[in-house]
Fold this sequence. Notes:
The structure holds 3 protein chains of 3 kinds.
Chain A: H1 2-21, H2 31-39, E1 44-48, H3 59-67, E2 83-86, H4 88-91, H5 102-105, E3 109-112, H6 120-124, E4 130-132, E5 138-140, H7 150-154, E6 161-162, E7 186-187, H8 193-196, H9 203-208, E8 214-218, H10 225-232, E9 235-236, E10 248-251
Parallel strand pairs in A: 1-10
Antiparallel strand pairs in A: 1-8, 2-3, 4-5, 6-7, 9-10
Chain B: H1 6-36, H2 51-64, H3 67-76, H4 85-106, H5 115-118, H6 125-153, H7 161-184, H8 197-223, H9 230-261, H10 264-274, H11 284-302, H12 304-308, H13 310-336, H14 352-383
Helix pairs in contact in B: 1-14, 2-4, 2-7, 2-8, 2-13, 3-7, 4-6, 4-14, 6-7, 6-14, 7-8, 8-9, 8-13, 9-10, 9-11, 9-13, 11-13
Chain C: H1 2-22, H2 24-28, H3 44-47, H4 58-78, E1 83-85, E2 91-93, H5 96-103, H6 107-118, H7 124-127
Antiparallel strand pairs in C: 1-2
Amino acid sequence: MIDTERRRLLKIAGTLILGSMLPIIPCSASSPGRSASAAGAGRWGMVIDPRKCPAGCRDCIDACHAVHNVPHIAGPGNEIRWIRQVPFQNAFPDQGHPYLDAGRRDVPVLALCNHCENPPCVRVCPTKATFRRSDGIVVMDYHRCIGCRFCIAACPYGSRSMNFRDPRPFIRTVNPDYPTRTRGVVEKCNFCEERLAKGMPPACVEACGKRGALLFGDMTDPSSEIRRLMKDRPTIRRRPELGTDPHVFYIVS
Amino acid sequence: MIDQTSGNRRIEWLWVGILVIVIAIGVIAYLRQLQEGLGITGMNQNVTWGLYIAQFTFLVGIAASAVMLILPYYLHDYKLFGRITLLGEFLAVAAVLMSVTFIIVDLGRPDRAFNVILHASPSSILFWDMIVLTGYLLLNLVIGWTVLEGERKGVPPPGWVKPLIYLSIPWAISIHTVTAFIYAGLPGRSFWLTAIMAPRFLASAFASGPALLVLVCLVLRRYTVFDAGREPLQTLGKIIAYALAASIFFVLMELFTAFYSGIPSLAHHFEYMFVGIEGHATLVPWMWTSAVLAVAALAVLLIPRLRRNEAWLAAACAAVFVSLWIEKGLGLVVTGFIPSPTGEIGTYIPTALEIAITLGVWAGGLLILTLLYRLFVAVKALTEPVAVKGAGEP
Amino acid sequence: MKGRRGGLIAIGIGLAVFLALATYPFWHAAGKAMPVPELDLETPAIRALPARLCVAPTAEMKTRHMQILDEWRTEVVRNGRRTFETPDGRRFDRSLTRTCMQCHSNKERFCDRCHDYAGVKPKCWDCHIVPETPSGEASAAVAGKGTLK
């Protein structure tokens, strides 16, 4: 395992050295990988600053859905969820109150898989089709999932979706580099592990770009961009009282 | 052989014929589901478990309830149950088979079902449920078959069955406890996140299962030569009364905690069940039916004069069964998803295909049950030809 | 007895019909042995190779390509090891679409031919997408190109 980790990080580091010579990836692109390699051991995490989300902007969602062939199925209760906007009240059910600043209350909050340190979905999976990698990413093995949906019942964040039907007819533009799913399996956000392996930041973070509402990096590295940001700005997490130890943080000031 | 009257034989064939037709419709509906996926059901991203898993949960309870016959007979030497313990064991066999079928039917990728064994994951309650259900099925098959064989040969069952019978008692408790753990260990679903989930499951199971057995005994008396007698049914009636009282008591405890604490995430689910939230009130008439039937049945079972009247007893047992089926086979699973942990008020209405598949699995289980009970009655007719009618009478 | 003979004749006819139907595939295909499919290795990418070498010797690829793909899948999805190194030091990305299909860009004439002959139906393409453009052309991985099924 340690060997895997080191090899993976060396690869990221190598790619990034090349990447820094050919600065084709904009702004935040190089920060996540560089900090992870500097730390020697990685633990990916994300910081979201909801107030930097321009009204009506869906760039991160569109980027994610395009990269991962996420289907768009119309109708209530049909939405396949990787990253989505939910009302503040739904993301933070315990934090809403009548005197909450309207600017915060009425701004939708981005919700995605929290890549918990202690993920209930992983605990309940009867086939280990969903598991936590040593870098903290909770991933799905779509080859193994039997579609029992125990993980959906276990996830307190509504971050998982079932393919009740064949998703292919509902995919807008197909990215041939990433597989689709079949009907009958559960799917979710994977923190773009396939992009991280190439030293690229998650698609949502890249799409957000300079707006800076989404930041991604190594939680174990005190000098990483997100750790430095978290030093100055107070953050909260979704339902921390459940003991899941979510690794997506929301700036509240 | 079993009953020479051609009228009863015709009714039996009619019953089997109806079951076969319902199974056939269910199979056709399931083939459709295999082709198109679970999208043919009413389930969606907010309510991801529905009728299938609810039936599974309810039927595990029916299977576990066989212990209400085994325990008095084998641990307390309550002789009157001696002639009907086999009915309980065979009911357990059919109920476990049905519940496992409901799990398979609910899988998105049934072709990969064996991954549960290939990639066994002991941290998952589903893994343990598979183990306890398989074990319980084997125990009841072996015990039921051996005891029946002994009866046919007119000898007491071999000594090695006894330990298995004693083992089957805690094992029965375990299957429903583990099934409750599927729900009671999920951090975000406050409706299920309750330490009394397993006791609640057992209480409702020990009412609904014996209620079904009373009805079965009355049917067997009416249409076959086997008569369980009056007294065993009266004792079952008392067992049902106690278990039903405990079941209602547990639900009231849940209501107290939810509403007196005033914690919205606890109260919302009960509001959804009994009054509806924001116009979403699909379950409301069902849940009130369930509540009224439970209280009425409890009253009938508690009043000795009514309970001793077998017509009232039968009505009460039917009411208990329907009431607890609604509570567990409909309300418990769906309500856990509404509202969702992120506050979405989902909807769930089973589709015609989904109901056809559900009925098909039930019919399959009932067919197995009919075959097993037919064997049982045949053996009883051979071994106690004179005493069959009215045996067990004090 | 007449009835008995009639019965025997009926059984005989029944048996004959059953045997005829049950053995239909055999005599239908009699004398028309299916030729073993020739696998087509002539793709631009393979022609451009300095030496015609796959990730393992041909004999091994013939018998074990499914196990190799299975191992690759486990390594990538579950262990995060994406690079495969052959004993002679050549390195490959463990990827069906980005490695295998880049050389074997003729799925119909390579994969399908033999799978059809052997009667196996791999499920790879239920999820993975067949790259549309043969390798060697720069546009191979442009988003929006590719076919479902």
